[in-house]
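lol forgot to send this yesterday, sorry. struct tokens for the thing we talked abt
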């Protein structure tokens, strides 16, 4: 068991102090890298980063990965190459025991391990809030690389189907996209998808651009509540010109398969995406510590729990007060800066010094709208169009820790300036399953095709006739 430096108990001679960071997103990876820099020379300190995936995702680039402007893997960075002496464990955190100071992990083969800590950093992020609207589990989410692949495959699949559909009503439904929630994520996604559709529609002879309908639905009074009203109005104008039907002050009552119900209208849509807010990681929300009404762990301005001095929290799973007492927003630009200060604070505590408060004034907020367009305000200056897009993307490009990835991204962007996105739909069925599907096409009852299942099938398995298998794990495929 490691010692308990920095808390009530003194360090145990010869036993290294273990700092465990949970979560390999912006907050966790940057905290770990900064701790390596600050404590690299100290052999009495062990740094361990645990995360479910062996890469970290640059979420602002996920939209372009979905449309194919960026190669899918290029919006992520493998974690191991960016660490020097910290240990990385790819595992799912199942349980955090704050009294015993242990974390239970399930590693990929399913083995459970307990990891003791002296300091724990909670950087487990958030998940899409599916508790606001009944039926939310019927909608696509947009938070992970898998979400981007699934949505992309699904959308292309709808085009393939609509191209051969003869029933106008059915075709209309196949080509209707509803995005629920017009904050940054919902609006940026709508922008990128409209741009994607503008480009790919030419490959489908029986679909006209005006056949594709987009709805962007927002419960609040306007889209992009995070940016100034004039810039949000500019974004709304850009999207309206691309045919997006923007509905504000329109709370969604429920989502069913293929249907979105509002107070005054029901929209039949084959693609429904939910981006109406986030809630903290359930593991954090379940911890016996003080939390805010959203379930985020409440920490002080130094990002440390007042009741549990060995617990630190940052990023989307923590409520960190600004100088006025209001929590900082859940944004990557904050997570990055919080991480650096938090690492310094742990290093200070290990030296017996006082941690310092995190104070940060936002540089600006921007939203990309597809077709290399964006809007936003940077250091007080409003920006629109290509300059806004370039500024925003350059900032996040440099959040990629290594030049190898940055160069790949720059090549993707350059290529995308001159060529159209492709419409390759990645079928994740292995060869034997594809063969099985082909054989079943001639049989009485088709063989069950489990979307995205990458295991060898049982050849005898038969099931109800299934629709085309294209969208691995697709949740809304009426
Ligand atoms: C599509 C999209 C676009 C965005 N665009 C912007 C933008 O342009 N600008 C901006 O400032 N912000 C943006 N954000 C918000 C930004 O992504 C978050 O604020 C930021 O990622 C928070 O960082 P984090 O490290 O706290 O959480 P995350 O980045 O979510 O990282 C959490 C990590 O914890 C891991 N994890 C979770 N549960 C477990 C578990 N049980 N076991 C092991 N590991 C686990 C996850 O795999 C992940 O690696 C965007 C978000 C999305 C979804």
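and heres what i got for the seq, position by position
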């Amino acid at each position: 068991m490691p010692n308990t430096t920095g808390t009530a108990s003194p360090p145990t001679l010869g036993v290294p102090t273990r700092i465990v960071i949970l979560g390999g997103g912006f907050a966790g990876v940057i905290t770990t890298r900064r701790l390596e820099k600050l404590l690299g020379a100290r052999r009495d300190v062990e740094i361990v980063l645990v995360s479910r995936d062996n890469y970290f995702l640059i979420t602002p680039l996920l939209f372009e990965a979905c449309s194919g402007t960026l190669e899918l893997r290029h919006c992520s960075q493998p974690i191991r190459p960016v660490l020097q002496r910290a240990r990385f464990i790819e595992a799912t955190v199942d349980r955090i025991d704050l009294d015993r100071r242990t974390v239970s992990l399930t590693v990929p083969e399913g083995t459970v391990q307990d990891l003791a800590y002296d300091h724990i950093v909670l950087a487990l992020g958030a998940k899409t809030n599916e508790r606001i609207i009944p039926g939310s589990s019927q909608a696509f989410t947009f938070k992970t690389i898998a979400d981007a692949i699934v949505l992309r495959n699904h959308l292309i699949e709808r085009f393939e189907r609509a191209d051969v559909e003869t029933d106008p009503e059915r075709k209309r439904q196949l080509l209707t996209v509803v995005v629920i929630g017009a904050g940054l994520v919902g609006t940026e996604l709508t922008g990128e998808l409209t741009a994607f559709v503008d480009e790919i529609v030419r490959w489908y002879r029986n679909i006209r651009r005006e056949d594709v309908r987009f709805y962007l639905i927002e419960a609040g009074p306007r889209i992009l509540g995070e940016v100034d009203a004039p810039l949000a109005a500019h974004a709304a104008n850009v999207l309206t010109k691309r045919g997006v039907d923007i509905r504000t002050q329109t709370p969604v009552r429920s989502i069913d398969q293929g249907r979105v119900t509002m107070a005054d209208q029901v929209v039949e849509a084959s693609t429904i995406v939910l981006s109406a807010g986030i809630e903290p990681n359930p593991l954090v929300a379940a911890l016996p510590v003080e939390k805010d009404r959203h379930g985020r762990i409440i920490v002080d301005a130094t990002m440390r729990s007042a009741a549990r001095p060995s617990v630190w929290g940052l990023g989307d799973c923590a409520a960190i007060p600004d100088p006025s007492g209001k929590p900082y927003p859940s944004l990557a630009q904050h997570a990055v800066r919080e991480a650096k200060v938090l690492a310094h604070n742990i290093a200070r505590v290990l030296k017996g010094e006082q941690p310092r408060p995190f104070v940060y004034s936002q540089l600006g907020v921007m939203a990309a709208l597809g077709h290399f367009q964006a809007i936003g305000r940077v250091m007080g200056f409003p920006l629109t169009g290509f300059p806004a897009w370039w500024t925003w993307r350059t900032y996040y490009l440099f959040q990629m820790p290594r030049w190898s990835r940055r160069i790949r991204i720059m090549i993707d962007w350059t290529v995308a300036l001159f060529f159209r996105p492709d419409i390759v739909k990645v079928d994740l069925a292995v060869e034997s399953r594809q063969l099985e599907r082909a054989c079943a096409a001639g049989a009485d009852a088709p063989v069950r095709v489990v979307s995205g299942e990458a295991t060898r099938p049982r050849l005898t398995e038969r099931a109800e006739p299934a629709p085309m298998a294209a969208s691995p794990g697709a949740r809304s495929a009426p």
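The CA atoms of residues 447 and 462 lie 5 Å apart. anyway ping me if u want another try
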